[in-house]
């Protein structure tokens, strides 16, 4: 009998599960949520959430906080799972911190994503400080526009729409920003591929796959 990983759709054989030292119920729940990855030797690595998912959490929390207290938010991901994160949000301003994960070279771990929301007639998402601008063609985002890829942009819009419906308003303007985005971007390849002034908001699944030297050897 195999379990299917809900993020990458791979099969996890029962023998891998049996080799793990993580309690079975805890392990199965972690796999079901998309957050845990089991390797063939029974070792377990933790996924994280992408920049797209983290930005989505900040955006939804900012909107919800226009009408009520918010400290934890659930948002959709492109693979159909819900992502749940703690946030700081009040009066239309939210901060979400990108979760730690088991990807050794993920330099955006711990980065603060901010969102500001103002009630409006329709839903509008804009990018502020720390989000890069596309300076050449050939990327998923258009030249001259913020480097927010289509899947995370749709993820953000869907989550904001959930929040708008939940608090009963017509629409909202949401501005996303990353105070340290420009600084972190200097450690990436963004400037080489045509993204200047900040990081990119990415994520095809909503989850960051784990990686380490041992996994690479396997």
Task: Walk me through the structure.
- The chain has 218 residues and is an alpha+beta fold.
- Helix content is 28%, strand content 28%.
- It is built from seven helices and 14 strands.
- The strands form five sheets. It has a six-stranded mixed sheet with strand order 6-7-8-9-12-10, covered by helices on one side. The chain has a two-stranded antiparallel ribbon with strand order 1-2. It has a two-stranded antiparallel ribbon with strand order 3-4.
- The radius of gyration is 18 Å and the shape is globular.
The share of residues in extended strands comes to: 25-35%
Task: Please mark out the parts with pLDDT under 50 across 5 or more consecutive residues, or reply none.
Answer: none
Q: What global shape is seen?
A: globular
Care to count the β-strands? 14
How would you state the average pLDDT, rounded?
93
Q: Strand sequence of the main sheet, in spatial order?
A: 6-7-8-9-12-10
Separation of the first and last Cα atoms: 23 Å
| Major sheet description | 6 strands, mixed
What portion of residues is helical?
A: 25-40%
Radius of gyration: 18 Å
Structural class: alpha+beta
> What string gives the helices and strands in order?
EEHHEEEHEEEEEEHEHHEEH
Number of separate helices: 7
């Amino acid at each position: 009998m195999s379990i299917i990983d809900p993020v990458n759709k791979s099969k996890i054989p029962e023998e891998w599960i049996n080799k793990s030292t993580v309690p079975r119920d805890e392990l199965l729940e972690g796999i079901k949520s998309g957050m845990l990855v089991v390797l063939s030797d029974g070792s377990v690595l933790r996924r994280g959430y992408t920049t797209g998912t983290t930005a989505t959490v900040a955006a939804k929390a900012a909107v919800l906080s226009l009408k009520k207290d918010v400290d934890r938010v659930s948002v959709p991901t492109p693979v159909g799972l819900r992502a749940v994160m703690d946030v700081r949000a009040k009066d239309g301003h939210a901060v979400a911190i990108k979760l730690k994960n088991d990807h050794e070279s993920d330099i955006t771990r711990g980065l603060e994503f901010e969102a500001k929301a103002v009630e409006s007639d329709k839903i509008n998402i804009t990018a502020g400080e720390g989000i890069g601008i596309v300076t050449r063609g050939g990327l998923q985002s258009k030249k001259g526009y913020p480097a927010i890829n289509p899947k995370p942009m749709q993820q953000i819009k869907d989550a904001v729409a959930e929040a708008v419906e939940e608090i009963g308003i017509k629409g909202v303007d949401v501005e996303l920003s990353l105070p340290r985005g420009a600084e972190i971007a200097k450690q990436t390849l963004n400037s080489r591929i045509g993204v200047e002034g900040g990081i990119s908001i990415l994520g095809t699944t909503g989850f960051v796959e784990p990686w380490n030297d041992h996994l690479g050897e396997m």
